[in-house]
Amino acid sequence: MSTTPPFDPPYKMSTVLEDGSVKWMEVRADGSMVEASAPAVVLPAADAPAPRAGQSGQSGRAVTVLNVPFAEKDEAKQLGARWDPKRRKWYVPAGVDAAPFSRWTA
Fold first, then answer.
1. Which of 19, 22, 98, 101 might form a disulfide with 64, Cβ 3.0–4.6 angstroms?
2. How many CB atoms lie within 10 A of CB 27?
3. HEC string of the chain?
4. From CA 42, how far away is CA 33, in angstroms rounded?
5. Alpha-carbon distance 5 to 3, whole Å?
6. What is the pTM of this model?
């Protein structure tokens, strides 16, 4: 059974080998595949549920959503905040102390 990805090449895909290691392949526009390094950002599997508001995608632990003015975004980022492009909000990832971000909490 063959599945067609929802996008056109080029793209990278991973395969889990028998020993548990991951091998990355780049699929080129002509359909050929070559061994490649992992992409800079690894997206969750298409069948993985999207994280709900107030949860992280990894462990289900709560994250703190922040109201960071644009002028202060670099400071929030230096403290460890992450940008969620879907919500268009900064947040404190699970496992990071939220106390330094108190001035941006709602």
1. 98
2. 17
3. CCCCCCCCCCEEEEEECCCCCEEEEEECCCCCEEEECCCCCCCCCCCCCCCCCCCCCCCCCCCEEECCCHHHHHHHHHHCCEEECCCCEEEECCCCCCHHHHHHEC
4. 19
5. 6
6. 0.43
Measured distance CA(30)–CA(32) in Å, rounded: 6
22: tokens are 């991951």
Do 56 and 91 form a contact (C-beta atoms < 8 A)? no
Which tokens go with 74? 């670099």
**Would you give per-residue pLDDT tens digits along the chain (106 residues)?**
556 665 677 777 788 888 888 888 888 888 888 888 876 655 555 554 555 554 444 444 567 888 899 999 999 899 988 888 888 888 888 888 888 888 887 5
In this structure, which amino acid lies at residue 70?
F
